[in-house]
User: Which sequence fits this backbone?
């Protein structure tokens, strides 16, 4: 994609979001992932130009606590259980478990391992 986008964007004003996106749309239909990468870069450039952090530039505040989960990757059941226990001890409030293979065919009650979570 770079070979198509670079010549079209060279010398353009990075702060012209609408014009730059229109140029990308002219070059290629769809492909929202690559276009969003450019959009993020343009907004970051604009924030730097304004002397602000990106969240400030976008009108956000640094007054929130963000929490996240941890995902247990598919693997041998003993390793998956050990990973889940470790993530729980590390304080993750939510743990997602990838399922596949023989685990996906087992009834949910059999997949549950003792000592994890509070039963919900």
Assistant:
């Amino acid at each position: 994609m770079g070979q198509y986008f670079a010549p079209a964007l060279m010398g353009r004003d990075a702060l012209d979001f609408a014009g730059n996106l229109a140029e990308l749309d002219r070059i290629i239909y769809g492909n929202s992932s690559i276009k969003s990468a450019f959009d993020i870069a343009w907004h970051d450039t604009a924030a730097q130009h304004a002397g602000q952090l990106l969240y400030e530039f976008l009108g956000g505040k640094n007054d929130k606590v963000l929490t996240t989960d941890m995902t247990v990757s598919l693997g041998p059941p003993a390793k998956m259980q050990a990973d889940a226990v470790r993530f729980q001890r590390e304080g993750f409030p939510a743990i997602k478990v990838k399922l596949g293979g023989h685990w996906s065919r087992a009834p949910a009650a059999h997949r549950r391992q003792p000592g994890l979570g509070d039963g919900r």
